[in-house]
Amino acid sequence: MTATLSPGSGLVAGVAVRTGLGLAGWGIRRARRLADRDLQLSRLEARAVAMQALAERDELVRSVNLPY
Fold first, then answer.
1. Where are the alpha helices (DSSP H) in the chain?
2. What is the tens place of the pLDDT at every residue in 4-49?
3. Greatest pairwise CA separation for the chain in angstroms
4. DSSP secondary structure letter of residue 6
5. Quick one: which of 3, 25, 23 has its CA closest to 15?
6. What's the CA gap between 29 and 35, in Å, rounded?
7. CA atoms of 50 and 52, how far apart (whole Å)
8. Are 21 and 13 in contact (CB under 8 A)?
9. In the prediction, which pLDDT does 68 show?
10. d(Cα 7, Cα 4) in Å, to the nearest integer?
11. Phi/psi of residue 58, each to 5°?
12. What angle is formed at CA 51 by the lines to CA 46 and CA 60, rounded to 5 degrees?
């Protein structure tokens, strides 16, 4: 017969295992997202479009002479 160190140790161990499994699942999902070439390409394209839109907006703002 074995005895636990304290009555709550089983609860703490259960929480630790569930937390570890949750973190492992999160890491696997994150690695999949980072390795997804199509997703990365679409993000790069969206970022390029956004940067171009910001550049056009900035140019428009600079071209307008506002009285102060």
1. 9-35, 37-63
2. 567 677 888 889 999 999 999 999 999 998 899 998 899 999 999 9
3. 87
4. S
5. 23
6. 10
7. 5
8. no
9. 64
10. 7
11. -60, -40
12. 135
Q: Cα(19)–Cα(56) distance, rounded to whole angstroms?
A: 47
The one-character DSSP state at 62 is H
pLDDT at 33: 87
Amino acid residing at 54: L
Tokens coding 57: 């907006």
Tokens of 66: 């506002």
- What are 65's two structure tokens? 């002479």
The reported pLDDT for the residue numbered 5 is 63
**Taking a C-beta distance cutoff of 8 angstroms, is the pair 4, 10 a contact?**
yes
Side chain identity at 65, as an amino acid letter?
N
Are 33 and 39 a contacting pair, CB within 8 Å? Answer: yes
Q: How many CA atoms lie within 13 A of 16 on its CB side?
A: 6
